[in-house]
Amino acid sequence: MLKSPDIETNISLQKRIIWIDLLVIFLFFILILRIWYLQITKGQEYRIRSEHNRIRLREIPAYRGKIMDRNGIVLVDNKPSYNLYLIPEEIEKPDALIKRLSHIIALNIEQAKKSLLHMKRTCAFKPVCVKRELSFDEVAKIEANKLLLPGVVIRVEGKRNYIYGKLASHILGYISWNRRGTVGIEYKWDKFLSGTHGGMQIEVDATGRMVRLISKRAPVAGDNVYLTIDKRLQQKAEHLLQDKTGAIVAVNPKDGEVLAMVSSPSFDPNRFVEGIDQKTWEKIVNSKNHPLQNRAINGLYPPGSTFKVVVALAGLQEGLINPDTVFTCTGKFPYGNRIFKCWKKNGHGNVNLHKAIKESCDIYFYNVGKMLGAEKIAHYAKMFGLGQKTGIDIGNERKGLVPTPEWKFKRFGIPWQGGETLSFAIGQSFLLVTPLQMAVLYSAFFNGGILYKPTITKLIKRSDGSIVYEFKPRVKSKLHINKKHIDEIKKALIAVVNEAHGTGQKARIKGITVAGKTGTVQLVEEKEEEETKIKEHAWFVGIAPAQDPKICVAAIIEHGGHGGSAAAPVVRELIKEYFKEYVGQKINSKF
Amino acid sequence: MYSATHALEKVGIKIFKRHMCWYGIGFLFFLLTLLFDYRHLNKWAYHIYFFSIFLLILVLVWGKISSGSQRWFKIGFISFQPSELAKISVAILISHIFSEMPLKKGYTLRELWKIFLFTGIPFVLILKEPDLGTALIILILSGTVTLLAGVKKSSLLILIITGLVLTPIVWTHLKDYQKKRVLTFINPNLDPLGSGYHITQSKIAIGSGMIFGKGFLKGSQSRLRFLPEQHTDFIFSVFAEERGFVGSLALIFLYCCLILRGLNIAKNSRDKFGSYLAVSISVLMFWQIFINMGMVSGILPVVGTPLLFMSYGGSSLVFTMISVGILMNIRMRRYMFNGV
């Protein structure tokens, strides 16, 4: 039953609902007034605005940061490039327009048509680039014909410029078409170098020209990167490796700064920036000599005799030998059912540690190696950072290989042979290292036993001058070795270069004590059951001056021959170059 | 709808088809809501309400965990917005509360505490999603219906003062972009790359429609994709550009009729709950429509609210259909009880 209060409620409620009726009608009326205002009062004006005046959001690309050497010499910057853009939605007849354009300037017609069509479908008011780096001539011609070319816009943009072409190409890397770094420093610091893009909101007319700037957000230029590389030294090193295949790395033994790093053959990054076509790209990538490979950190080679210092130290540390221990080298060392030979056919005679290193006697080290055993040798190799990445701050580093009996069995299913220990001891067998690892290793002998992580980045500075990152030496590990042992080996390394009968005499420099070690890697090629000898890889690692080292250079020349004759002179010339201007220069450059 | 999505090409067609699907599903729900007696809603008011609160909390938590949106659940390709359910459940609940309260000339604040509480909870939860638009709508809905029910003058005064005092507090809790939106409303040139852009484009689109519009699919602003969100919040701009003043007027007229009809159903309902429910739902729909159109034409700040029936959004459509269904339901049964 309906109760009477309910009826009363309903009536009063009904009355009040009428208020809401009125409110609704009133507000809708306001809305209609507003729409009237927009569509009728201001309709014409808005119609014009919608047809002729359009608002565009334009990206303002940021200026990519520069890359400099340690002294501030600019290696990579940007140069202006005039690029031709088409705005799809402003072009009514694409085919006709492109044809007209091709009459004025040279143009890849098919490509342009394809890109234009594609953009028209996906994002019609984003400009499409159809040609880059117009000449002034071409720019003038297009400007003159502007009225016939609606929707055509020329924009000045920065193009990455590798000022010295191939110089330090492996270190610098390059940026790809989408303006991102793909390799090297360009890749490592891409976020810093890129900066932040800005944007502006503009009104444009039918030809795409800006009528009015509505608002703008300025771009932030990228940060500048300073490398530890010395341009002059780098240039010298590249010159020394011209026409050769191999690598040179020069580091500061006291803090790990990389002063120069070259890999040959190399490439010109400018070619990649331009946008390389498929064929040329494949040619470069598949080229037999791998110009894109940075052999200094990515090339794996047996170290040869340069490894002997590790074995020598191992022997001393383990107490198996002392500096006066003598072995007799007759040129032949029978072991098992094989005869291992020394590189000197008739042998070195009686050899102690000093002589063994100086003259690089193999048989001395066969003996030491036999006493140590493969596992111990491997242990010391790893201690010196072999078989691991050095931790350098650019990518693509390989860690190399330190073999152990366990590893061999896992890998090949065959047990370790005793004879392989002998090869191991003279730096052959399965042992693989990179030139950088050797530079770091030898540095440790001369800097008190510290393995530094090599660094290529010296400084990163914001465009306003503030410092984002500053180099500090990074320690990988401290070696706990007896100073007396180190000194013995150091003395011998000095003798290699400066005493008669030393294998590294070609590295001698008047007035500077250079210490170092030669290495020659035997290579054989198996051809139809016959082993043909190929020319050996030549190694040399040099440090100067021995008393207070400022530079350590490791060089390998593929198929260069003997270390002493092919690699030692290269290192000598580089060290000479380094000290040419070093004398009198402060150690830390200021910017 | 078709025109707006046409400009979005491949993605657009998918959206259009989906929207049509939702129409179908919505219609189904519409029919379903006709089947039961709306007075069950009265009995279950609290249950529905707390269920919606539960979902609101769940979506916040779920969203936080999966770092996804905190506004809707996504199961496969179906997404469900609990805030839509919340709107209706609030409408149902306040109708229930008012219908239970004794008749008075005007209620005091103390008597209205339940309304405040039950409006406040979803308001805060939805605000946190963040969804300023829907939160405000719930607030305004509550407010309107409360005013209809009658508030004592003194209480009203206290309420207004409290509101003024609270506004700055709420302001500081708003997210930056929400604040920006309100500021831009006052001065559109403040943020031309952001929300100022939306409104400028919307006004151009609407205004350029003039009297007769540009024709179906011929809206240059939308076709050239100047208008962001054109298939959701700004769909009226597309419509106005294409159909002109004539079309806009017709659409507003249709919406007006819908609302007035709903209010009429409220008047003719035989029980208090039915009346309040019909009013609440009509008012709810009205505010959503008015706020969207007002925002799009520049007389209200941008708050991100879709336009009923037209904007793309499954949850919105389904619940709108349910709303209409409930209205029909009330109308259908106005003679149905007490054996008269």
Shape of chain B: globular
The SS-based structural class of chain A is alpha+beta
Report how far the terminal alpha carbons of chain A are from each other: 97 Å
The SS-based structural class of chain B is mainly alpha
Structurally, the number of domains of chain B stands at 1
Q: Tell me the fraction of residues in β-strands of chain A, as a range.
A: 15-25%
Could you please say which CATH topology of the largest domain in chain A applies here? Answer: Beta-lactamase
- Radius of gyration of chain A equals 35 Å
Number of strands of chain B: 2
- Spans of chain A of at least 5 consecutive residues whose pLDDT stays below 50 are 584-591
Could you spell the SSE succession of chain B in H and E letters? Answer: HHHHEEHHHHHHHHHH
Largest interface: A-B, 52 and 56 residues
Topology, number of strands of chain A: 21
User: According to CATH, what is the class of the largest domain in chain A?
Assistant: Alpha Beta
Average pLDDT number of chain B: 73
What would the principal axes of the Cα set say about the shape of chain A?
A: elongated
Calculate the terminal CA-CA distance of chain B, rounded to whole Å.
46 Å
The protein's oligomeric status is heterodimer
Mean pLDDT of chain A: 87
By CATH, the superfamily of the largest domain in chain A comes out as DD-peptidase/beta-lactamase superfamily
Largest sheet of chain B: 2 strands, antiparallel
Key terms:
heterodimer; A: 591 residues; alpha+beta; Penicillin-binding protein 2a (Domain 2); Beta-lactamase; 2 domains; 7-stranded mixed sheet; 5-stranded antiparallel sheet; 21 strands; elongated; disordered C terminus; B: 340 residues; mainly alpha; two-stranded antiparallel sheet; 14 helices; disordered N terminus
Describe the fold and architecture:
The complex is a heterodimer of chains A (591) and B (340). Chain A has 591 residues and is α+β, with helices and mostly antiparallel strands. Chain A has 2 domains: 57-227, Alpha-Beta Complex (Penicillin-binding protein 2a (Domain 2)); 231-582, 3-Layer(aba) Sandwich (Beta-lactamase). Chain A has 21 helices and 21 strands. In chain A, helix 15 crosses helix 18. Mean pLDDT of chain A is 87; it is low at 584-591. In chain B, 70% of the residues lie in helices and 2% in strands. With 340 residues, chain B is an all-alpha fold. Chain B has one domain (2-332). Chain B starts with a helix and ends in an 8-residue tail after the last helix. In chain B, helix 4 packs antiparallel against helix 5, helix 5 crosses helix 13 and helix 13 (272-296) packs antiparallel against helix 14 (314-332). Chain B has helices at 2-6, 9-35, 39-43, 45-66, 82-100, 113-127, 132-149, 153-173, 176-186, 195-207, 220-223, 235-268, 272-296, 314-332, and strands spanning 73-75, 78-80. The interface between A and B is large, with 52 and 56 residues.
